[in-house]
């Protein structure tokens, strides 16, 4: 296969070094003028041969040399629903949900294209199974921490960890069309239980829970969008920002946006978008506001 041999030659010659990031699968397909399924199969072949490896939220990178022989693809008799779901999660973590295809999963598993359908009904069914499996990765201790604030902090940080690990989750559970996932319900139960006994009616508790969850979802969706943007443009976040510098300078030069200009001057080159820091700030502001609401309710 031309893609496989070309990339192997680049690695052997040193043009591609361990840790170097390869283009996303969609970009590979465009660059070589092949179908997405063909590009996916080529990248999976390289991974099976130990030439490259997938790194979550980074993509496919050149693997370090190893004395270990690459693992042989498992026979179809070793397939199971759990294995199909696990491989699908690995693909979505590395390339984003938009790059997930049943053919790509089959190629990753080293089986015939239709084989995964024996275990899942199709892509939509698979995505729900993936989400439920991801939400099941973290649970809650016994006993739980004392107090509503400590419990909500625990729920918030647990959900944030899961969403950062699997940014595509934010695409699966929209607020306007909630899906019933048993393991997502575990997290909702913990949050709603923490809000009980604080003097709020059922509608207010639900509103608070929706806002709490949406603040996590709203932030982490940017991580998934960044994965999609890199796949579509081939530009990293820093490269994209560099491409916008001239337009920003022209905008500031108009003098029409003094507050924006002052902000840019103040941060200079020292600002990095830190989603984890923003999550912690948002969590504190939400819980501080909730404490004010509780205090006001007790005075009535």
From TrEMBL:
SUPFAM superfamilies: Homeodomain-like, Tetracyclin repressor-like, C-terminal domain, Winged helix' DNA-binding domain
Record-level Gene Ontology MF annotations: DNA binding
Keywords, alphabetical: DNA-binding, Transcription, Transcription regulation
Span of domain HTH tetR-type: 78-138
Segments of the chain annotated as binding DNA: 101-120
Residue stretches making up the HTH gntR-type domain: 1-65
Cited InterPro entries: Homeodomain-like_sf, HTH-type_TetR-like_transc_reg, HTH_TetR, Repressor_TetR_C, Tet_transcr_reg_TetR-rel_C_sf, Tscrpt_reg_HTH_GntR, WH-like_DNA-bd_sf, WH_DNA-bd_sf
Entry superkingdom: Bacteria
Protein name as annotated: DNA-binding transcriptional regulator YhcF (GntR family)
């Amino acid at each position: 296969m031309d893609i496989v041999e070309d990339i192997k030659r680049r690695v052997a010659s040193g043009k591609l070094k361990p840790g170097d990031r390869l283009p996303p699968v969609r970009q590979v397909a465009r660059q070589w003028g092949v179908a997405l399924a063909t590009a996916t199969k080529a990248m999976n072949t390289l991974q099976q041969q130990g030439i490259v490896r997938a790194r979550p939220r980074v993509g496919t990178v050149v693997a370090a040399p190893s004395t270990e022989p690459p693992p042989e693809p498992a026979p179809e008799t070793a397939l199971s629903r759990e294995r199909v779901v696990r491989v699908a999660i690995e693909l979505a973590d590395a390339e984003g949900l938009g790059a997930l295809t049943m053919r790509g999963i089959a190629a990753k598993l080293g089986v015939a294209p239709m084989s995964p359908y024996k275990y899942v009904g199709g892509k939509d069914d698979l995505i729900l199974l993936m989400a439920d499996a991801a939400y099941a990765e973290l649970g809650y201790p016994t006993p739980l921490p004392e107090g509503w604030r400590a419990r909500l902090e625990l729920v918030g940080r647990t959900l944030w960890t899961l969403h950062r690990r699997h940014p595509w989750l934010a695409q699966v559970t929209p607020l306007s069309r909630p899906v019933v996932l048993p393991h997502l319900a575990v997290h909702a139960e913990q949050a709603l239980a923490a809000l009980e006994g604080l003097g709020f009616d059922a509608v207010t508790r639900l509103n608070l829970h929706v806002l709490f969850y949406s603040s996590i979802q709203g932030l982490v969706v940017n991580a998934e969008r960044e994965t999609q943007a890199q796949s579509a443009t081939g530009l990293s976040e820093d490269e994209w920002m560099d491409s916008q510098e001239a337009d920003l300078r022209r905008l500031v030069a108009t003098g029409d946006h003094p507050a924006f200009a002052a902000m840019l001057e103040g941060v200079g080159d020292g600002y990095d978008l830190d989603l984890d820091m923003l999550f912690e700030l948002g969590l504190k502001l939400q819980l501080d506001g909730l404490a004010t609401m509780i205090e006001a309710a007790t005075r009535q």
